[in-house]
Amino acid sequence: MRIVIVGGVAAGMSAASRARRFNPDAQIVVFERGEQISYGACGLPYVIGGEVEDFDRLIARTPEQMRARGIGVRLRHDVTGVDAAAATITVTDRATGQSCTEPYDRLLLATGVSPVRPDWAVTPLGGVHVLRDIPDGEALDASVRGAKRACIVGGGYIGLELAEAMSARGLSVVMLEKGPEVAGRTLDLGYQRRVRAELERHGVDVRCGVTVQGLTGKERVSGVQTDRGLVRADLVVVAVGVKPNVALAKAAGARLGRTGAVAVNARQETSVPGVFSAGDNTESVHRVTRRRVHIPLGLTANRMGRIAGVNMAGGEARFPGVVGTGIFKTFDLGVARTGLTQTDADALGLNAVSVDVSSTDHAGYHRTSRPIHVRLTAEKGTGRLLGAQLVGENHLSVKRVDVVAALLGERATAQDLFDADLAYAPPFSGVWDVLLVAADRLHRQV
């Protein structure tokens, strides 16, 4: 059996490793257009900010390590076409420019996503960046060294983390967000405002409801033109979102979902026999709503890849779906969410209610206790737990979100969360853990 994987990193390399374990006799080849096959992309902002020594620290596995495990790795190779009828792919060697066809018995498309670049961001000006992979990070790091004023366009995960990183490097930072608040797709309004307040407390100039119209400058960017005037900047980071890379899936004849990502079944199979898809280019099922969603996150990609690897190698495994759990840090604030926000529930027409609890992350009498804010959301009538949002001044404390995330997969109720036997000790938990307090109040309302 010949298993061909297009794309490395989380999904591709997880699939390759799992397929090798499950079927030691399979021939496995990974084609990667870049220089690295396995690295922690989530760590990129922390290298920029100086919390991680260098980009090499993000490398998880080298090509040599994977080859030693019997997995073929071909770097700097672009897969440009798929002929599903012939079960072949077209590959171009970026070093020589030569193209050839390669056969497969099973094909995995792990092509990931690309940063969205609005028309105004397609420019030859220096100092304009996106951040998706290590080469992006290296280019951005080089620009930071000669910059004084940074403008971050977009208030999502990447933008929020980079605001802290740029500030740590001594730059003045302006954040432009088209929506009414930062973290708009992640949190409800009150929690968005807490994040914005943290940015502003650390000197970030946050401007929401602003539309970018263009860039100014000669060889290097000197400003960002908006509908509310010019923002002076010699460094611009475009962080307005990502789009799934689906060109190869289309070439293979695979069906795309309503999200625009590749549609698959629970075995990560596309609509084309023998062709699988996993990772950021692929949609999944939301375990709370049962709807198809596209939530490109590293752990999700890793899990999808494992499932695809087993099935391509002849086994049987199924991906259960996602609940949309996410977490990030900006300055001294940790932020996490899982499941649905109240805004999400309202948009879906669910009869939902939320409760908010503000307390301390552990016993208030302990000298290290810090404020934490929790919102739980449930369905009225059934009490079904829908989601949680946490914002805490000790960023590690918001990992409590994992408790709710685990319960969401079981379609638990607010009462089930209240009944959970959570660990307690003063340095770790409050006298009555903040999650239990919120669950008790929520149960009384549903």
From TrEMBL:
Domain of life: Bacteria
Organism: Deinococcus radiotolerans
Cofactor(s) annotated in UniProt: FAD
Keywords: FAD, Flavoprotein, Oxidoreductase, Redox-active center
Oxidoreductase recorded as keyword: yes
Recorded family membership: Belongs to the class-III pyridine nucleotide-disulfide oxidoreductase family.
Keyword Mitochondrion annotated: no
Domain FAD/NAD(P)-binding: 1-284
Domain Pyridine nucleotide-disulphide oxidoreductase dimerisation positions: 331-431
SUPFAM superfamilies: FAD/NAD(P)-binding domain, FAD/NAD-linked reductases, dimerisation (C-terminal) domain
Protein name per the record: NADH oxidase
Database matches in Pfam families: Pyr_redox_2, Pyr_redox_dim
